[in-house]
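Check the record.
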Amino acid sequence: MLILEVYFLTLPKRVRVVEKKITPPQRILNSKNPEVSVIIPLMNERRTIARVIANARKVHPKTEVIVVANGSRDGSSQLAKQMGAKMITYKKALGHDVGRSIGAKAAKGNVLLFLDGDIVFSTNSLKRLVHAVKNGVDVALNKYTGTLARKNVHSVVLSKYALNNMLSLPHLKGASLTTIPHALSRKALEKIGAENLTVPPKAQTIAANKGLVIKGVHYFEVGKTNPRKRRGPNDPLKDLIIGDHLEAIQHLLDKTDPRGGMTDLDRNRKMVK
């Protein structure tokens, strides 16, 4: 590809044209029989998607990279296609987290690794999630939890901690399927159901109820690097994520009892009736 750079010199009407070669992104080769499927939802992330795809392909020798482009208009989906990713394209936006579900349904691997198109992680760090699943973990989470060490703790962080405590998984703190990157085993996908990945806290609740092995595997810094974090206090995703956690809690209550499976200890409620 050639780009013409035009420099206007001090003398009038004199123009120098310089041809500059641009190296296109290296094309990847997807495995025909993948062991790992990397699912990347994509919407207007041209600045980062090439690096995300390149690093994702190297997590395992047998890897397929699936990009779910929804409503993308900045050329990022064309770039992903040029790089050789398996494309699932929608002209209109699907809504938050829907791309994960669609990509999971198309995945062939025994390990499913979920990324976003706007945050670049090193291949070596992503391999930790893949290795964890191959060694018996069903749901391998990012250890990033958000901080409780402040006067006004973010409501999303509180929601994650609260849900894990209700699931009798306090050791996870705020680790959550809401946060990328994370990975699932094929067994986990079948137990959870790809359709439930559209509501990550609900998917995590189902995984816990099914007795799947859930573990915080590696710390990935997403608080500072996530563009969504920079939308300010009125970020609409905050209410969406809190609502997702409420839906997860309701699912837990529906599947257990009004106390979410928690014991009453020695409390005798009949005495006050």
Q: What stands out?
A: Residues 141 and 176 are 6 Å apart (CA to CA). The chain is about 30% helix and 20% strand. The mean pLDDT is 88.
